[in-house]
Amino acid sequence: MKKIKIGLTGGMGSGKSLVANILSTIGIPIYDSDTEAKRLTIEDVLIRKELTNLLGKDLFFNDSIDKKKLATYLFASAANAQRINSIIHPCVKKDFKSWAELQPTKYVAIESAILIEAGFVVDVDYVVLVYAPKELRIERTMKRDRVSKETVESRFSRQLDDEKKKEHADFIIVNDGVTPLIPQIYKLLEDLSLKE
Are 131 and 14 in contact (CB under 8 A)? Predict the structure, then answer.
């Protein structure tokens, strides 16, 4: 059975996790790249070694990581972020491929805010963008994370704009609080089955 790999992406506050939960509920296994990247950062020997070489031996203690030290380095510059990503992303890609093969279903999905930026598009068959207007995304993220508008806009600036992500998307699910999600998700699955 050929696996159909769906790449689920969207900016912060777009509702991609909600769409992922709906897909999971209807039987499609979801690989949460953010959660798995955090797990691998702690567990993977190669990641630990390379991050330790980069940031020092005190980065890891017991089975945890100095998140503040890592974040300070990561957000200091685009070059720093690239260094960290070049250590972690290849391991996440490899882990996703192994995980996908173990799933007993025809469809699997990876949820990632930076699916396009991280180069995961080559590892999936279809890119699905969960799209919401920017102001709504800002409002949702402020409420969810209890942070200021300035903080949210700063975070947004570090990700590829959703208008640019549209150029890479095979399918778009609109999550604007008005358009019903469930019919769009079933239409997506119908369209995918027609492409086989």
Answer: yes
Please give the single-letter amino acid code of residue 192: L
List Cβ neighbours of 42 (8 Å cut-off, separation of 6 or more): 48, 60, 63, 64, 65
pTM of the model: 0.90
Q: Give the strand pairing for 60-61 and 64-65.
A: antiparallel
Rounded to 5 degrees, φ, ψ at 64 are: -140, 175
Total structural domains in the chain? 2
Are both 16 and 112 inside the same structural domain? yes
Which of 87, 102, 117 is at the close of a domain?
102
CATH number of residue 53's parent domain:
3.40.50.300
What is the DSSP-derived secondary structure letter of residue 113?
T
Which structural domain, as residue segments, surrounds residue 84?
34-102
Average pLDDT, whole number, for the chain?
92
Q: Please write the tens of the pLDDT for every residue from 92-114.
A: 999 999 999 999 999 999 999 89
